[in-house]
Every structure is written in structure tokens, then in C-alpha cells.
Amino acid sequence: MTSYTIQIWNQSQAAKSYVLFLRQPELTANGGSPQAYTNAWATFPGVTNGGFDRITFDETVYAYWSHPPVGGQMLSGGVMQVSAQTQDTVAFSGGSPTGFTTLTSPGTAQPGSFAIVTGSDFTPASGYVLGMARIAGTPIPVPTTTFPALPNTITNIRPIHTYYVAEGAYAPGEVIDAAQLTASAEIDFTGRPQTTATVIQQANGTFSVTYS
Asked: Is the sign of the CA dihedral 179, 17, 136, 1 positive or negative?
């Protein structure tokens, strides 16, 4: 599997913190579109002027679940590696024990998607969260997109491998309002032979992206 690198070079003339997040996947749940949240994926706190930081990753995807978040942060939960190419399907149990119980691969998700299936062993009041996660700076995958878990639902999740860098001090997995970020850089490796993107924040606050 191809590895990619995104590196951030701060030339803004001041120390800055940055956040890397993903475009939300396409979601369908029982024919509708659930409300989804964007989560901070990789974070780069306190990058000095002239300093840089980077992350190297591949496109491995995980199904994600969490107990009710606290203060916008997911504190405990679990993951299961899935493949959208084989349309994997995972089953979530809200009973005891809580978590993913089975993986069916190849599964019955929509083309290019994986699916999370829930039963009737919990209610919306349980506050569980489901979604997608990716490996970032630690061995434990970090959620990139989350949505409230509903019982008796089949949710198809089609990952989109487009990334954004913006200013901001966040914790990995923290819910962010991407629409409120004043400036960001888009990184998309689709169709490119290059596997490294360099994001530079200029003195005027704008971002530029080059590929190599």
C-alpha cells in the first residue's frame, strides 16, 4: 500500500498550531443522510516560525465507535480495520460487551464503501458514536468523521481521501467546525504520481501546496 507524507512549513512570522482533517465521507443510513461531524485527525501544536512538522500515512481505514463524548472529545471506544474495496460490513453491539462483534469481508456495503450495522440492543439515549478512523501520530486510530449511533440502522460510509490543513489548536479526535476555519489548504493525491505534499503558510496567512 502506498505511503503518503504531508509536511507543514510555517513561514507566517509567528508560532502557530495546525490541524489536519479529512473531507467527510459520503454517508447513507437506511436511505437517508445522517448528521456527521468532522474530527481533528493529526495535530501540530506550537510550530515555530520557520519550523516544520510532518505526518506519513497510508489509506488504511477503520470503523470506529465511542462511548458518549465529553466536551467534544472521544475518550474511549474501539476500532476495526475495514476495506471499502471489499465492501466490508461490521456489526455493532450496544449491549454488553459493547463494541464491534463481527466483520464480514467481502461484505454487502455499497460499492466503494464499508458499512456499520446496528441492532436493537441500545437506544439513541445511550449516546454512542460511530464513524471512520485513520492512523495518525499514534498506533491507535483517530476518528476523522463521527455521527450519532442509531439502532436498527445500516450506515454505508464511502471514504474520500482528500485532506485539509488549517490553523487551530485541537486535540486528536476533537470535533471541529470546519466551516468556521478562515483559511485552509486542500491536499488531494488522486491521480498524482507524487506522494508528498508540502503545505506552506505565508506571512499573509494564506497557504500554498506543492507536490513532490
From this structure: positive
pTM value? 0.91
Question: Minimal CA–CA distance to 43: which of 60, 21, 14?
Answer: 21
Q: List strand residue ranges (DSSP E) for 41-84, in order.
A: 42-47, 52-57, 61-66, 77-82
Cα 159-165-171 angle, rounded to 5 deg: 85
pLDDT per residue as tens digits for the range 123-170: 999 999 999 999 987 889 999 999 999 999 999 999 999 999 999 999
Q: Are 84 and 109 in contact (CB under 8 A)?
A: yes
**Residue 80 CB contacts under 8 Å (≥ 6 apart), including other chains:** 62, 63, 90, 100, 103
Q: How many CB atoms lie within 10 A of CB 82?
A: 30
